[in-house]
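2024-03-11 09:14:02 INFO queue: dequeued item Diaminopimelate decarboxylase, len=401
2024-03-11 09:14:02 INFO validating residues
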Amino acid sequence: MKDSTLLQIAKDFGSPVYVYDAEKIEFQYKRLTKAFSKVKNLKLNYAVKALSNISVLRLFNKLGSGIDTVSIQELRLGLKAGFKPEDIIFTPNGVSLEEIEEAAKLGVQINIDNLSILEQFGTKHPKVPVCIRINPHVMAGGNTNISVGHIDSKFGISIHQIPLLLRIVENTNMNINGIHMHTGSDILDIDVFLYASEILFDTAKNFKTLEFIDFGSGFKVPYKKGDIETNIEELGEKLSQRFNEFCKEYGKDLTLAFEPGKFLVSEAGVFLAKVNVVKQTTSTVFAQVDSGFNHLIRPMLYGSQHEILNISNPKGRERFYSVVGYICETDTFANNRRISEINENDILCFKNAGAYCYSMASNYNSRYRPAEVLLYKGKAHLIRKRETFDDILNNQVEIVL
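2024-03-11 09:14:37 INFO prediction written
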């Protein structure tokens, strides 16, 4: 996305604002499908939680993707966006039996990650196809908050509980059609992922009616120049070969499934914010923007680093700035970062804002959530309006005191 295009968007739609590039989303989707082109049956289910705008979902539907959902609301959003039930997998954690039954009635693929619900669901609905989420006890992820396959994780059924799992399946005569794992986000070491995959293959041998094996996702994307990323091409080559070998051993061509989120949308998104104040203290120069962790919480929550560019003065002399927000607690986007000289009213561009930015935004401090814009075929489309004061009051009930 050109600086001039982004500056025009900030002018037309105001700031702060999220901007997504449909061309980049399509590029990442095709890159992933190409990496696994040697697999006969490949299914990519976009992880809706990364960015759930309905226009973005319709773009993925057009590309031929399925979706991975973690709540009944995401599931219904997917149906509203035009996805067929058979192209939706429902992978919640810790939800009620009633929510899983509601999803099953809608005809989507159910994925269960605990023995209690598995036994209850299997007893009541033994004919409904179910995928089982396994915890391989493999640590993979860039932060403890996003590493979900280790031994202390709340996600998945422990591989050490496989005997009990098999007893439940046998007693209920359930139809197990899939096996699943997700080790965590920001996978750096392909060998660790392949090791976890072997655990999943070994587990899959216990089930004779499988249709697919879902390896989750968590592929790391670069957040700055020279940053490490998951070598998706190498992973595609190695895992495809091993998967094809397993299918021969299993005696059936299974579907290899993934549920990428960040990999598909992170680099496609940017977040634009205006500089309200440049504040010099005895030791620091602060660039204070018209946003805060209510719009971009990842640096505060995960310690993530988003590259920040001054697109109003891209060729200016670089100086050191701490970029901070307007929230009443500390909300620091960057400490002592080299950025082209910043003046008040300049527009700063935060990169990698496509994943887990708007979807984790809030009305903290009673601030409005920003607008969202999709660049599609060279034109900027407003895909979510900026909130207003009426939105803040919506659903509040005033009582007479």
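2024-03-11 09:14:37 INFO annotate: The CA atoms of residues 134 and 190 lie 19 Å apart.
2024-03-11 09:14:38 INFO item closed
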